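Throughout our pipeline, every protein is held as a single compact record rather than as scattered files. Such a record has a labelled line for the sequence and another for the backbone structure tokens. This encoding replaces a full spatial description with a residue-level series of whole-number codes. For reference, a complete record is included directly beneath this paragraph.
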Amino acid sequence: MAGDRRLMAGAACAVALVAVSDIVPLLYMVRLSLAKVGGGVGGAYAAVLRDHVFIRSLLNTALFAVGAATAQVGAGLVIALALRPLSRAACMAWFAVLLAPWLMSEVASVVLWRGVLMADVGHLDRWMGAFGLPALRMLAGAHTALPALIVVATWQGIGFTALVILGALVALPANLYGAAMICGLNRWATFLRLELPHLKPTLFAVWVAVALHSAGQFALPARLTMGGPMHATSMASIYLFDRLLHDPTPAMAAAGGAIVLAGLATACVAAWCLRRVTGAHP
């Protein structure tokens, strides 16, 4: 009984903490979003949804989140498979290198990559010119700026992603490989038929976590491209921050935040349903 009371007290404290830190601010945001704008309640939602910059920011955020998550999980899986046969000391040495970008400050990362990708004067364009090739102007192109951000985000998070996937690989049961030997499966067939099905829950969870983290990115696009060019890299976080700074009332920023939150909640429900359908669960 005493143990049950302690568990109930701990659960009550956890619920109270979530209510104070998350639910109360969310309710306050919804209250702000319902302020009368344009002559009626809910006018802020209509005004935000009519703003083409907001719609573009939502699309950019979705593309960036999906692209960064897919690139990080795919590259992390390749790195984990390459590092698994190595000794523990060799793996630690490699991860010391791979985790350096993840541990680096956002400002240092932005300074580094602006020096590489800056149009015409960056190292990449200068190297292209040295070989007689046209400049790529990655950060200045409306069609290349977002892929450039995905590359930088992948560079930042690939070490942590690979570490998680390698942990899942090492934890696979040894009898899998005994079964592969009995069935005469080669290395590729062993991965596709035995390892990959067991890795699906981990890969799916990592993909969702990276996608949600990328959807909330602010520092990287704000400092590297400032949302440009022509709103090509404007994210929902940048739009909401700009609205909060320049609008006389916070209603439109709050309405935009509520729409983004509803979209993230819908994406989480869709991910859970997809997990059940595809069998990506233990």
Observations:
- The mean pLDDT is 85.
- The chain has one domain: 34-278.
- Residues 155 and 228 are 21 Å apart (CA to CA).
